[in-house]
């Protein structure tokens, strides 16, 4: 496999926060270096269900993850497994749910906190965190620049063809401080500024880059149900592919077949949605 792509998932960022507060990403839309579309999450618009849909290309009604309390090893082809079938090298810097869904369940925090498994059928190079005991009064997210650096490290050391990074910082901030707050404005600004220097480096190393969220959040920091603020986020794309008109709404289940088609990996029968980049 020659193609390379990184998927950056900033957990819980609604459309309006991306468009209003991420000045670097928006500046690259203005300069023509990136394109942006609105993307709508599956239902329920809850994190674990969305992670499973992002990587399997099917709705929770099909994959069966009904929420964060129902995480298990999924029995469906996904972006990791299809990339491996095509000879690609995969990596993940994410919450431990991703390891459980796509590699091993339950998560053993010693065995699985980091692994390098070149022969794996799914995740070759994983770096995970559990956020155990996280809550409104006890935010347990790693520093985002550390996560971006870790993904870059895996790309350099292991020549990833596909890497996914997921960070819960902004979801946790939204649950704590809601969305009409100085804290939230600042958190989005800091995320944008921490992420920005990595994007030209990843592009320079030959990666297409997608930045998006798993779901949005409403004014009270809630998500899980059906509402534009809960479901809708932005998707920024850096790369040479053509895409749809700018006012097209992307369905979250289109993401998996799109990533696979960009990598040149086979799209499995289970992924029925059309790719949106070509
Ligand atoms: Zn989430």
Topology:
Elements: E1 5-10, H1 15-21, H2 23-31, E2 35-40, H3 47-56, H4 60-63, H5 79-85, E3 90-95, H6 97-102, E4 114-116, E5 125-129, H7 144-158, E6 162-167, H8 169-177, H9 182-195, H10 198-204, E7 208-212, H11 228-231, E8 232-238, E9 249-251, H12 255-263
Parallel strand pairs: 1-6, 1-7, 2-9, 3-5, 3-6
Antiparallel strand pairs: 2-8, 4-5, 7-8
Zinc ion binds next to loops.
Keywords:
278 residues; 36% helix; nine-stranded mixed beta sheet; binds zinc ion; alpha/beta; globular
Task: Provide a descriptive summary of the structure in words.
The chain has 12 helices and 9 strands. 36% of the residues lie in helices and 17% in strands. A hairpin with an 8-residue loop joins strand 4 (114-116) and strand 5 (125-129). The chain has helices spanning 15-21, 23-31, 47-56, 60-63, 79-85, 97-102, 144-158, 169-177, 182-195, 198-204, 228-231, 255-263, and strands spanning 5-10, 35-40, 90-95, 114-116, 125-129, 162-167, 208-212, 232-238, 249-251. It has a 9-stranded mixed beta sheet with strand order 4-5-3-6-1-7-8-2-9, with helices on both faces. Bound molecules: zinc ion. Zinc ion (ZN) binds next to loops.
Summarize the structure.
The chain is an alpha/beta fold and 278 residues long.
Distance between the termini: 17 Å
- Total count of helical runs of at least 4 residues: 12
Bound molecules: zinc ion
Contiguous low-pLDDT stretches (5 residues minimum) are none
């Amino acid at each position: 496999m020659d193609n390379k792509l990184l998927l950056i998932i900033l957990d819980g960022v609604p459309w309006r926060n991306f468009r209003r507060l991420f000045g670097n990403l928006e500046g690259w839309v203005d300069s023509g270096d990136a394109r942006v579309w609105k993307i709508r999450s599956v239902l329920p618009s809850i994190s674990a269900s969305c992670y499973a849909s992002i990587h399997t290309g099917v709705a929770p009604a099909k994959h069966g993850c009904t929420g964060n309390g129902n995480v298990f090893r999924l029995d469906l082809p996904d972006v990791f497994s299809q990339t491996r079938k095509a000879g690609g090298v995969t990596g993940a810097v994410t919450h431990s749910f991703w390891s459980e869904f796509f590699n091993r369940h339950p998560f053993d925090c010693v065995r699985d906190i980091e692994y390098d498994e070149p022969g794996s059928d799914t995740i070759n190079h994983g770096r995970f965190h559990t956020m155990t005991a996280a809550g409104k009064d006890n935010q347990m997210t790693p520093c985002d620049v550390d996560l971006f650096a870790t993904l870059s490290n895996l790309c350099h050391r292991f020549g990833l063809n596909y890497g996914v990074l997921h960070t819960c910082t902004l979801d946790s901030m939204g649950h704590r401080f809601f969305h009409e707050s100085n804290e939230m404005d600042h958190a989005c600004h800091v995320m944008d500024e921490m992420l920005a220097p990595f994007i030209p480096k990843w592009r320079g190393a030959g990666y297409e880059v997608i930045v998006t969220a798993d779901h949005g959040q409403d004014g009270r920091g809630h998500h899980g149900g059906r509402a534009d603020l809960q479901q809708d986020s932005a998707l920024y794309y850096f790369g040479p592919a053509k895409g749809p008109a700018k006012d097209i709404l992307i369905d979250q289940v289109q993401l998996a077949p799109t990533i696979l088609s960009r990598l040149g990996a086979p799209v499995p029968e289970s992924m029925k949605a059309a790719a949106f980049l070509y």
